[in-house]
Design a protein that fits this description.
The chain is α+β, with helices and mostly antiparallel strands. The chain has three domains: 122 residues, no CATH class; 172 residues, ph1033 like fold (Roll); 65 residues. 44% of the residues lie in helices and 17% in strands. It has twelve helices and eleven strands. It has a six-stranded mixed sheet with strand order 3-6-5-4-2-7, sandwiched between helices. A five-stranded mixed sheet has the order 1-8-9-11-10, covered by helices on one side.
Amino acid sequence: MYDEDQFLLFQDYIGMYIEKGIPTIPSDIAFWMVRSKSGYFYEEFRKNEYMAIGWNCIEKHTDLNSSALPEILVQNHDFVKKDKRQIKIIINKCNAFINEMKENDIVLIPKKSSSEIMVALVGAYYEDSQKTCDDENKINHEIDTVHEEPFRGDCPYKKRRKIKILRIVTPEKINFHLMQALKNYNGIADISKYSTDILNLVFDFYIFKENLFYAFEVNRKERIPLKYIVSLLAGTSEYFNHKVEEDKVKIKVNLNSPGTIEIMIEQIQTLIAQYGVGIVIIFAAFVLVGNICTKVDFPKRILDMITIPSRYRMQRMEEEKMRLSLDKEKKEWELLRNSLNQEDERTLVLLLEANQQLEIEAKEKDLAENAKDNLEVFHPDKDNG
């Protein structure tokens, strides 16, 4: 038996997908890793929602094929040596940031030692014309020689892109192979080969390149009984047995606890066209409820292992907190009005009512906006480039 709160949360969670649809990720999206100068600019990137890279002498309209560019780099930047290989790498990084990266790509920005990783949507490219090569040289020298933490200066980089933060994650949420890629010391790198590992950090249920992905979070820190995993595999196979070919259903398990169990169903649009979108939403419901189908029961303690994503729970908690605060303010306002005589009330209304109502409306608007889930970023009926 599941308690009422758990069931209502589950019902709300599934209802969200029924109402808004399954997030569909554009197939041409790319995935990037951009560093923050060993984490020194991480907090600034996070607070101001932008990212940036160095080598300020290279701008949007710089001819990257110019034979004079290597010498320009050496003359303007103290830390650039007359090394053909290094200079080629610098030019390629700038080209990737300016020209290859595009809006609505996804970027991972690690903090120092990857103790925290920011997952964000890439926004428009722009340049801060006030940032100079001298600024960059000075700040780089301070960082490399003083090693002050936290760094007190502003990011000196000219080339910038806006970002929209989707989620902040900790290392234990990261797939082992993706974590190894994040240890790459390049300032910017294309990590699209880890696309689903990255998407699993943001979405638990989505369509990408015509395949459907479920990413169930395993939250147990203890060892997981074998029957739990076996039941998941058997139940998944049984549910889709007569609907798709056997080789179209694949499962990838991150053998860590906590970890992720990823279920992929190939060519999902064909299945949806034949049976409707409910066929896949109901499957997610069965897993979370603990009974995948009538023939194969999932252990009743499944919610000890796989739960509704923590980010969704936190969102609901914040919404409830705002509702309680709003209700309290409304009640206090009514009590105050009821305690006054008519003349005092008219005076108070003239002075305060308009402002109080504006504050309440503003909070209600914030509450409505906060109710939107990250999945709206890639809602099927929106053009996301």
